[in-house]
């Protein structure tokens, strides 16, 4: 089995903790950790399957490091590549754009012919709107460490188990 590229900011404590949990469940030998703050187009072309950590910043924005990489990303043809996206959001403080960054990144990847896998149910959350919501499901894994930290471990486990089927 080819390695999975696991992209996340090494400096973002919560995202890093989630990424490490994902890697532990998948098996460290099956993933290669890539710092999203120094990612290059070459990093993306090395992998056929990638997991991206994309927390929502401010009022529904991509983190600066991902936002700065978007122009390079828009130059790549991602045909044949699969992506799973996880992100953190705060459904109480930002109910009108809960987990938006996951949806923004999914749209960019799909616009470059990438395939996004790993949808999850929005059940158990309370929010007004989210760009991550597509056809009644989240396009990735959205976690709320501020309001529902006790649910994180089970949500990660369930999502990673599904990825084993989704990644082809």
Architecture overview:
By secondary structure, the chain is an alpha/beta fold. The protein has one domain: Rossmann fold (3-Layer(aba) Sandwich), CATH 3.40.50. The protein contains 5 helices and 8 strands; from the N terminus they run βαβαβαβαββββα. The protein has helices at residues 13-26, 41-45, 64-73, 100-111, 152-166; strands at 4-8, 31-35, 49-53, 82-88, 115-117, 133-134, 137-138, 141-143. The strands form 2 sheets. Strands 1, 2, 3, 4, 5 and 8 form a 6-stranded parallel β-sheet that branches. It has a two-stranded antiparallel sheet with strand order 6-7. A hairpin with a 2-residue loop joins β6 (133-134) and β7. α1 packs across α5. It is globular, with a radius of gyration of 14 Å. The chain starts with a strand and ends with a helix.
Secondary-structure topology with pairs:
Elements: E1 4-8, H1 13-26, E2 31-35, H2 41-45, E3 49-53, H3 64-73, E4 82-88, H4 100-111, E5 115-117, E6 133-134, E7 137-138, E8 141-143, H5 152-166
Parallel strand pairs: 1-2, 1-3, 3-4, 4-5, 4-8
Antiparallel strand pairs: 6-7
Largest sheet: 6 strands, parallel
Tell me roughly what share of residues is in helical segments.
25-40%
Q: Look up the CATH topology.
A: Rossmann fold
Provide the gyration radius in Å.
Answer: 14 Å
Number of helices: 5
> What is the architecture at the second tier of CATH?
3-Layer(aba) Sandwich
3D shape: globular
Q: Tell me what portion of residues adopts beta-strand conformation.
A: 15-25%
The first-to-last residue Cα distance is 10 Å
Taken together, the total number of domains comes to: 1
- The sequence of SSEs as H and E is EHEHEHEHEEEEH
Please write the CATH class name.
Alpha Beta
Structural class: alpha/beta
- What's the overall average pLDDT, rounded? 95
Low-confidence stretches: none
Report the count of strand segments: 8
CATH H-level homologous superfamily name: Flavodoxin domain
């Amino acid at each position: 089995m080819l390695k999975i590229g696991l992209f996340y900011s090494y400096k973002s404590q919560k995202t890093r903790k989630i990424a490490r949990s994902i890697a532990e469940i998948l098996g460290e030998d099956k993933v290669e950790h890539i710092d999203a703050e120094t990612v290059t187009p070459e990093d993306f072309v090395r992998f056929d399957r990638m997991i991206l950590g994309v927390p929502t910043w401010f009022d529904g924005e991509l983190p600066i490091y991902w936002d700065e990489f978007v122009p390079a990303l828009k130059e790549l043809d991602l045909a044949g590549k699969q992506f799973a996206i996880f992100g953190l959001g705060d459904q109480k403080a930002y109910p009108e754009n809960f987990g938006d960054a996951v949806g923004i990144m999914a749209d960019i990847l799909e616009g470059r012919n990438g395939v996004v896998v790993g949808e999850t149910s929005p059940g158990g959350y309370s929010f007004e709107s989210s760009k991550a919501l597509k056809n009644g499901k989240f396009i990735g894994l959205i976690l709320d460490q501020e309001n529902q930290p006790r649910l994180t471990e089970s949500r990660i486990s369930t999502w990673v188990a599904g990825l084993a089927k989704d990644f082809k």
